[in-house]
Each structure stands twice: as structure tokens, then as C-alpha cells.
Amino acid sequence: MSDPSLARNDLSERTLGMLLLAPAALLLATIVVYPIATLLWTSLTSVDQNNPQAGAAFVGFANYLRAFGDDRFWHSTWNTILYIVVTVPGSLLVGLALALLANQPFRIKWPVRLGLLLPWALPLVFAGLIFRWFFEFNTGVVNNVLAAIGIAPLPWLSDPTLAHWAICITIVWKASSFMALMLLAGLQTIPRSLYEAAEVDGATKWQQFWAITLPMLRPAIFVALIFRTITAVQTFDIPYAMTGGGPGDSTETLAMYIHKTTLDFLDFGYGSALAALMFAFSMAATAGYLRYTRRSASRSGDD
Amino acid sequence: MVWLAAATVVINGFFPAAWILLTSLKTETELLKVPITVWPEDASLANYETAFTAQPILRFMWNSLVVATLSTVLCVLVGALAA
């Protein structure tokens, strides 16, 4: 049965929908599609602002080939992977612990909420600068606490291995706040009745955690992990503020190398190619997670 | 137990900010002292005075406010329409 008035109504509703979507689409086109297209195009050319007269010559995939043969690219990629592998699970565990602690029934809630929120609200560069001050050799809190318990001061920021640790600790502190917020929201959606039923059945707190809390928290954990991984791929501010990539370039991440290539060395073509590789890298990481969630979602649907 | 949980979260969150607040009240010579001091020996607001006189900091704050407000308004507007 076709009702012409209904069809017209449908059509105008669609037009309205299109109109309402137009600003968002336009914004996306100007701030996402256009820059990415420009980036991809630039990565195929040799724009070098050290030599502006040369113009932008099309060089095909030469910039990408150069990246694959560039030790510094591999080194910075390896550092980025190290930070992902250490800080994503690290901030998940610390964040989960904080979320569980903050989910206790407190009489006065605001100090705990604020304490959970504060590291997240702090700009990344500030966190980096504050922890750089903490890890300072002579005047840092960390070395002074170590001295108080009888351990010799450690050169946190001038030893490559220790610098990695210092940066990882800072990132975990900063990122666990965001994780905790996401997981706390997840914790509060778990119905109390499940715990009451478990208590009636004589389950211990530990068993309740593994049988109720963790399975019910899985969607929240996945969303938090995806967000955290994407930001971890782009790790820039904290190492930049803490070590500037040093000592040498031992703590340099891929994002820092891109920044240096384009804005310090002014090699826009090569920098764009590196950025495109990082983009592919973060897409691959996200796609991996999404595939995993879809598979586990369909599996639980079959049950 | 509950108090311990609260204290852990609060200290974890507040410690760096609180430390910076205390540091901001110290003099430059006190900052370079070893071992370090927790409470400022000679608390002064001199650093804040420098912050306001060495650069147009009110202008910077105003800039941040404008950017934050405009971007929020724009995001909400475009996002609300799209949703």
C-alpha cells in the first residue's frame, strides 16, 4: 500500500536530516578529510622548506622507502610500541584499581571524585613538567625519597633505560585517571542484585570480582582500551616535556620524530610520509581491537 | 578500609598538584636545596607577582577562555544537529 503523503513526509524528513547533518559533514570535510588528503599528497612529493625554490616535485613512494631504511624511524617506532605495550596494560590495571577503590560507599564523595578526575584534567605538558621535576637528580622528590630509605640517587632522566621507566610511570599516572573514569562508569551500571545473589550463594569477594565485576565490565574495558591505545600511538607531550626525546634520541617517539622532521628540519614531504605511516599504524591497532570486540560480541550472542 | 581506599585515590590524584602549589610558594634558593623541603621555609607570593608582571598573563588566560568557549559552543552546536 503506497500512501503518497507518507512518502512525501519521509522525503522531507530525510531532507531535514541531510540539512542537520550538513554542518557536521562540512566540518569533517574541512578539518579531517582535507588535511588527510593534503598529507597523503604531500607525502608523495619532496616539499623541503630548507630549499623552497625547488618547489614540490612528485617523487612517488620515495619518502616511504626512505622511512623503511631510516634507523631513527624504526627506533622511534620501537619506542612508541614500548610505551604502548607498557602503559596501556599498566594504566588499565592502575585505573581498574583506582575505579574499584573509588567505587566504595563513601559518605563524602567529592574529594574522591576530584582525586580521580584531577590527573585527567591536568594538561599533558604540565604532567610531564611536574614529573620531570619529581625525577630531577638532586632536587627531585623521587631521589630524595630513595635517599631517605637508603638507596643511592638514580639518574632518572639521563640514563636511557631509567628515562623510559620515568616516562612510562608518568604516562601511567596520567592515563590511569581516564581509565578509572571510564571503568567507574562501567562499575556503576552493574546491578547490585548480582552481588547480593552471589553473597547468598556464599561467593567470596574475590570470586565475585572474577565472576561478576570483570565480565560485566568487559565492554567498558574495551572502549577504554581502544581510546588509550589510540592516544598511546600518538604519545608526544609527556616525553617531550620530560626528556625532549633525550638522552640523545633514546626516548624519542614516532610523533616526536614527525614533529622534528617537519617543524625543525622543515622536510614536509618526509614528515608527511612518516605521519601517514603513524596514521596507518593507529588504524591497524584500532581495527584489531574492533575485530576482537565484534568476534566476542557475536560469540556471546550465540550462547 | 574505606578510608584507606579514599586516601589512596585522593593522594594519587592530588599529590603532584599539591606539590606544585607548595613549590610555587618557595624561593629559588630553596628549590635548589638538598635534601628538599616539603613546606616552604619562607613562603612568599613573589613567584605569582612575577607571573603577572613578566608577561601579559591575563591576556593568555583570556585567549584560553575564548578558544575553550568557542570550541565548546561549536562542538555542541554541530554535534547536536548531527545527533
Q: What is the H level of CATH, i.e. the homologous superfamily of the largest domain in chain A?
A: MetI-like
Gap from first CA to last CA of chain A: 39 Å
- DSSP strand (E) fraction of chain A? under 5%
- Shape descriptor of chain B reads flat
Describe what this molecule looks like in 3D.
The complex is a heterodimer of chains A (303) and B (83). With 303 residues, chain A is mainly alpha-helical. The mean pLDDT of chain A is 85. Chain A has 12 helices and no strands. Helices cover 75% and strands 0% of the residues of chain A. Chain A has helices at residues 4-43, 62-68, 71-102, 110-121, 124-134, 141-148, 160-187, 192-200, 205-233, 237-242, 254-264, 268-302. Chain B has 83 residues and is mainly α. Chain B has 2 domains: 1-44, no CATH class; 55-83. Chain B is 75% helix and 0% strand. The longest helix of chain B has 26 residues, at 57-82. Chain B starts with a helix and ends with a helix. The relative contact order of chain B is 0.07. The mean pLDDT of chain B is 86. Classes of the chains: A mainly alpha (303), B mainly alpha (83). Chains A and B meet through helix 1, helix 3, helix 4, helix 5 and helix 6 of A and helix 1 and helix 4 of B.
